[in-house]
Design a protein that fits this description.
5-stranded mixed beta sheet, acyltransferase, Aminopeptidase, Bact_Acetyltransf, 4 helices, 23% strand, 146 residues, single chain, Acyl_CoA_acyltransferase
Length: 146
């Protein structure tokens, strides 16, 4: 059985391991101060939020998200990071985390939840195509060197 809930101080090591796996998947290594900053933000619950998925009491998935204003609707929720332990994939953990974020956002009056993924992330996209609409947008970035 999958349970979804907030993260506690006791989850820090398991969360760091999952977050490192997420960043490794995308070919990056975060500086320790950025990891610490994210954890502090999640603990305060003001700007960024995190939920964890547990199976048999073990943290096996994480999701990070935030809300922001929109010019065309009520506030929207951006699902920034989603990662599940490779050993638990295919058991509904990712879907449960997405549904939990959608419920959180719905309860706060958000108009929608959205996220990005790489086109080559075919494993995740199989799930995403089942739970959300692909609106066909492309992402462009201007790196600012910070």
């Amino acid at each position: 059985m999958i349970t979804i809930g907030g993260l506690t101080e006791n989850d820090r090591a398991a969360w760091e391991n999952l977050f490192a796996g997420y960043n490794t998947f995308y070919g990056r290594t975060l500086a320790p101060e950025l990891v610490d900053r994210a954890w502090r933000e999640f603990a305060s619950g003001e700007r960024m939020h995190a939920l964890g998925a547990r199976v048999d009491g073990e943290l096996v998935g994480i999701v990070h998200f935030l809300t922001h204003v929109s010019t065309t609707s009520a506030d929207v929720c951006y699902l920034q990071d989603l990662f599940t332990d490779p050993g638990t994939r295919g058991r509904g953990v990712g879907r449960a985390l997405i549904e939990a974020v959608a419920g959180w956002a719905r309860a706060r009056g958000c108009a929608r939840v959205y996220w990005h993924t790489q086109a080559s992330n075919t494993t995740a996209r199989r799930l995403y195509d089942k739970v959300a609409l692909d609106k066909g947008f492309l992402q462009y970035q201007i790196p600012l060197g910070t």
